[in-house]
Amino acid sequence: MAVFPASIPSPPISSFEVGPLTIHFYALCILTGIVIAVWLTQRRLSRRGAESGLVLDVALWAVPFGIVGGRFYHVVTHPGDYFFPGANLLKTLYVWEGGLAIFGAIIFGGIGAYIACRRRGLRFTAFADALVPGLLFAQAFGRFGNYFNHELFGGPTTLPWGLQIESTNAAFPPGLPAGTLFHPLFLYEMIWNTIGAFLIIYLERRLRLHSGRTLALYFIWYGVGRAWFESLRLDPTEFVYLGLKANVIAALLLAVLGVIVLVVQARRHVPRPDGPYLPGRGPAARADAVAASDQTAEIASPDESGAAHVGAPPAPPVASGEDPQP
Asked: Residue 164 pairs with which residues in a beta bridge?
């Protein structure tokens, strides 16, 4: 009786048809992650006094910026996949086929979120801190999309959770026999991100983190983990500096940035903000402005004789038959 090693099979399909439309599992995973991130971030911000629907307004800026940035970073770091004689340049836009780099998404998505926060009068650090757990959950779901695309795997392994990759895959390492199993880095990162989300929520409550400190923990946690995963990754990359892949360098820089933010905020002794809004913005500020406007209108409103009240006390009444002149 033949004994077959346990392993994780790659899914036989990566998409399905609905009428004339082709639905890609990768895109569904990305969308699911976005929905979870929006819902959880809104829930966390609402507990801190934010209006309902606020996160959706920010997402309408951050998500498109993030998709553009993620795709741009991926194409720039993998030019050989898109720019060669006879290449279809439109494929640089085919995000549903995979290829959204998180580092580009973080940079561009952060820019979009900052613009939206300024427009809505929201503290950017308050939004970013509230976003962190949802962002990690979203990244975990996004990695599940990599599984459907048969990508994001590491070196050969004989472990029972080794990932099957077909030898016809363009990323299959040359020189290895068909049937070789690989480390499922997508699964490792899913687990890492999920643990990070719960751990950061715990530390945030325990240490009463605020003013960007939660975001800094995310930078450190994700940066360290991603640097490790990228060092194991076999997917081809064309940018290597000082023997390190571009993504490893980016991940380490992200972790260093997180440490810098924590140190700077600790030295500044920034007090905990009263709420998620900038001074003079938000529902309370609008209510105060309306009340002040109503009070001003009441003071300036005319009396029955047509004269305007200017705040002076009324003259004493004159008795009947009495000369009002001194």
From this structure: 181
- 241 in helix, strand or coil? strand
14: left (phi over 0), alpha (psi -120 to 50) or beta: alpha
* 268 belongs to an annotated ligand binding site: no
Amino acid at site 22:
T
In single-letter form, the type of residue at position 225 comes to: G
Q: Are 127 and 117 in contact (CB under 8 A)?
A: yes
Tokens for 202? 């715990």
Question: Encoding tokens for residue 163?
Answer: 């990932």
Residue 24: in which H helix or E strand, if any?
strand 21-24
Neighbouring residues of 38: CB distance < 8 A, sequence distance ≥ 6: 55, 56, 59, 134
Closest CA to 247 of 74, 67, 94, 109: 74
5/122 Cα distance (integer angstroms): 54
Q: Sign (positive/negative) of CA torsion 244, 247, 251, 257?
A: positive
Q: Taking the alpha carbons of 265, 270, 271, 276 in that order, is the dihedral positive or negative?
A: negative
Reduce the DSSP state of residue 171 to 3 states and report it: coil
pTM tops 0.85: no
In a domain, 300, yes or no: no
CA atoms of 204 and 41, how far apart (whole Å): 14
**Count of structural domains within the chain:** 1
Range of 198's domain? 23-151+160-166+179-268
Q: Do residues 104 and 69 lie in contact, with contact meaning Cβ atoms separated by under 8 Å?
A: yes
Q: Which residue has the tokens 């009786």?
A: 1
Answer whether 74's CB lies under 8 Å from 105's CB. Answer: no
| Cβ neighbours of residue 17 closer than 8 Å, sequence gap 6 or more | 23
74-119 pLDDT, tens per residue?
888 888 778 888 878 888 888 777 677 888 999 999 999 999 999 9
Are 51 and 72 contacting, i.e. CB atoms less than 8 angstroms apart?
A: no
- pLDDT digit string (tens) for 179-217? 899 999 999 999 999 999 999 999 999 988 888 899 999
| pLDDT number for residue 57 | 93
